[in-house]
Design a protein that fits this description.
Elements: E1 6-7, E2 20-21, H1 53-58, E3 71-75, H2 82-92, E4 96-98, H3 104-107, H4 131-136, H5 143-168, E5 172-175, H6 182-190, H7 196-209, E6 218-223, H8 226-236, H9 239-242, H10 249-267, E7 272-277, H11 284-291, H12 314-326, H13 328-334, H14 350-360
Parallel strand pairs: 3-5, 3-6, 4-5, 6-7
Antiparallel strand pairs: 1-2
Length: 403
Amino acid sequence: MGSLARISLNKLGGCKSIKILHLKHGVRTITSKLDQLPPKPKPWPYNEKKFTMLNFFFDKTSARLDENSKLVVVEGPVAAGKTKVAKQIANTFNMLYLPEANLDMFYINSYGYDLRKLDPMLPEDCRTFDVMDFLKNPRHKLVARMQIEQFRAKYSQYIDALAHILSTGQGVVLDRCVYSDFVFAESMFSQGYISKAARKKYYEVRDNCIGELLRPHLVIYLDVPVPNVLDNIKKRAVGWEKNSQVLNEKYLEVMEYNYKQSYLRRMGEHAELLIYDWSVEGDLEIVLEDIEQIDFDKYDYQDPHMKDWYLKLEEDYACLRHLYADKKYNLMAYSTSVPMTGAPELLVDAEDADQYHKILATAPGEQYAPGYNKALGDTGILFKMDRHQRDTLPLTERRLHYL
């Protein structure tokens, strides 16, 4: 059965050997006894209303934060059961659950129109390409671009998670996150699905923007051996997944290695790590009970653990809240400002790009910015004072950036 464990990074050996240390009871912890938490201000509507300097004087960010204002990430290989665990954690501790980010965030626009419908009219290099396409055709030219876009989707979602915590005080549980996305890029590279040049560009994009984020408080990893992962994939019988030749033993072994030897080691320097032997689905009640034992306040400002979240001044909280809630567009720009020269599969011919943008402009909701498409029901006064000031979905990232 799966059982709660706290990993000791000093003892972490190979992929098959993990030293387990049991947790001790903490002092101030995440709690399921929500009636014992102090009252907090009404959630700030960060998607509709900006947090200005004037608001700062009357709405203190720290007043919203309590023991449950945490960012929790559930990680693990394919078909490990992450979604069930993440949803239960969110439900028990009254946190917001966000499913794993995917390219629907880019391909379905603000009006619900699926841009994949345009593919028959578009040049091949400008068509959409998502994970399902990758599993069917892993050696397609667009695989590298797809993986960078996957990273950007997770980056976008992570910004939303931080904005939500700081604006409302409610914790967030993520099913995978932007920090672990590289394990998929490494698995693809190991099998020759992306080139060395494209891999280099992937890390340039990652390095250019990921430093703007706050690392999670808690990472939970469900450890499932590769043979069990293959069995789970067969059992859940998702057609495009089950019939794919991509999810083979070698691909999954590289993923497991990078999870354990790279990702968990790095995150363990900043976040609490809980690792489960999830070869057979464990008892979720044990997970929930032991999460409540973690004392996140045991570290001081000199310890790298929780350092991202150790803020001394109210102004520090306010600046970060403003950054994630009101300046998301600026943050997303960091992920598109890396030139793609040197990686041919990431480049698009100028004539094809011109044709792409002309066809895209004919799609519902794509002629003008969201809020200005009158034909689709957008209304409002002259300067659109009533339109949302941000969106949890990227507004401009559907355009081609690798020209």
